[in-house]
Design a protein that fits this description.
Part of the SNAPc complex composed of 5 subunits: SNAPC1, SNAPC2, SNAPC3, SNAPC4 and SNAPC5. SNAPC3 interacts with SNAPC1. With 435 residues, the protein is α+β, with helices and mostly antiparallel strands. The protein has 13 helices and 14 strands. The protein starts with a helix and ends with a helix.
Length: 435
């Protein structure tokens, strides 16, 4: 048999085999069952629809608790306790899921489904998974056949050449994002095993508060990422609340200029622990010991203006029982009026290649904060903020501890009237991410 005829016969046989496997999944009853399963993921919105936010990245209200039922047939359920056993068990499940095929056909299928076949060879290769202001992978840029990549790199280099004040780089959304690897499996051997295909994993992106005015046409700037937190669906909502860090929680705001060694040990978070989350038009109130419902006045204010009645739940509810919308802007409020925007960016089933044990929550990304240095020596980080002082050129002025005591005190007494406050912003930067 000629080589071309043999090749054509082999291709025809492979196509028939693939078509038979597809027909198994394209039966009307199979499709109807899958549509019914997917419909169980969506739910009607709770509460009044007073704030309409739409966009390509915003989903409908999701009942994420139904994810295991919808994808119960996928080969992602493993119970192994070691990484090698997990990979072997996963491969066996995939073979069983595909059907009764021999090793040669399975290897062909793996090669056929390899994502590398989607590449053209002219892609712009980035040195990281997030956008950056640096022109990376210049080898791709100077490929004469990669016209689109060359165009992108030329524009980027042109912007950086004319950007004398670094305005372009400062406007980039991900300019100061630091990626953090997940915890190692061996760090906490006593933790329970993660149940792949059953446990639900959420990614929550916390953003920096920003000033906004209803009278102004534009905000001062877009909100910057502070951190991304990975949480399990089995964990209560207050676990997420406890992993949102704010400088106002530890800053006392008390003048200690008369006795700098008498900085209060009690933090605002200890004095005012009450807080709530407003997720998908529903209030979730922290009802732990010492907390009060600070949403009552808000709900009464809304009812008095015919805005409707907003549902109220406790933060003791599990995260998987919360109806969320991916990409929808929600808010966390504490200390009365300190607001932190956040969004749910991902909700998915645990995969066998995730950490084997339940080491959640953990921080996967942080926005790097700028360290404030002493205004006098410019060498040490700020420990004190001084206001209303006549012998310093700025108001307020930042001091390290050494300059603060040498410049403003003599024999333990103030050399002039001023107010001094302990500054812990750099301490927050050093501690992030805190597990």
């Amino acid at each position: 048999m000629p080589y071309d005829d043999k090749l054509e016969e082999t291709l025809k046989r492979d196509q028939e085999s693939i078509q038979n496997n597809l027909n198994k999944f394209l039966k009307p009853d199979f499709c109807e069952n899958e549509e019914a399963k997917i419909s169980n993921l969506y739910a009607k919105d709770e509460g009044p629809h007073w704030r309409k936010v739409t966009g390509s990245g915003i989903t409908k209200s999701l009942i994420t608790k139904n994810l295991p039922k919808v994808f119960q047939d996928l080969p992602i359920h493993t119970q192994s306790t070691s990484r090698g056993d997990v990979e072997l068990e996963l491969e066996q499940q995939i073979v069983s899921f595909v059907g009764n095929i021999d090793d040669e056909e399975y290897d062909k299928l793996v090669e056929f489904c390899d994502p590398k076949h989607l590449e053209t060879g002219h892609e712009l290769k980035m040195s990281m998974s997030l956008p950056t202001s640096k022109a990376s992978a210049l080898n791709s840029c100077y490929n004469p056949q990669a016209s689109s990549s060359l165009h992108i790199c030329k524009n980027l280099m042109f912007r950086k050449e004319i950007d004398k004040k670094n305005c372009y780089s400062r406007k980039l959304k991900y300019r100061t994002v630091c990626l953090i690897p997940p915890p190692e499996d061996d760090d906490e051997p006593d933790n329970e095993l993660l149940q792949s295909g059953k446990d639900i994993i959420y990614r929550v992106r916390i953003y920096r508060p920003f000033p906004y005015s209803h009278s102004a046409k534009y905000t001062v700037r877009h909100s910057l990422l502070v951190s991304e937190i990975v949480v399990l669906g089995q964990q209560p909502l207050w676990v997420l609340r406890d992993h949102i860090y704010c400088l106002n929680d530890i800053s006392t705001g008390i003048d200690v200029s008369e006795n700098p060694d008498a900085v209060p040990s009690t933090s605002p978070k200890d004095l005012f622990p009450s807080s709530f989350m407003f997720i998908n038009n529903v209030f979730y109130v922290d009802e732990r010991k010492g907390c009060a419902d600070i949403t009552l006045e808000l709900r009464e204010w809304a009812a008095a203006r015919n805005m409707g009645t907003f549902p109220v739940h406790s933060m003791d509810v599990k995260l998987e029982d919360v109806r969320i919308r991916l990409g929808y802007p929600d808010v966390y409020v504490h200390l009365g009026d300190c607001e932190h925007p956040f969004t749910f960016s991902e909700a998915r089933l645990a995969h066998p290649r995730d950490p084997l044990r339940r080491m959640f929550p953990f921080v996967s990304q942080v926005g790097l904060s700028q360290v404030n240095y002493c205004s006098i020596c410019s060498e040490h980080s700020t420990k004190w903020v001084v206001k209303d002082c006549d012998i310093v050129p700025f108001d307020p002025t930042y001091f390290c501890d050494t300059c603060f005591r040498l410049y403003l005190y003599k024999d333990g007494k103030k050399v002039c009237p001023f107010k001094a406050y302990a500054y812990k912003g750099n301490e927050m930067s050093v501690l992030k991410p805190r597990q």
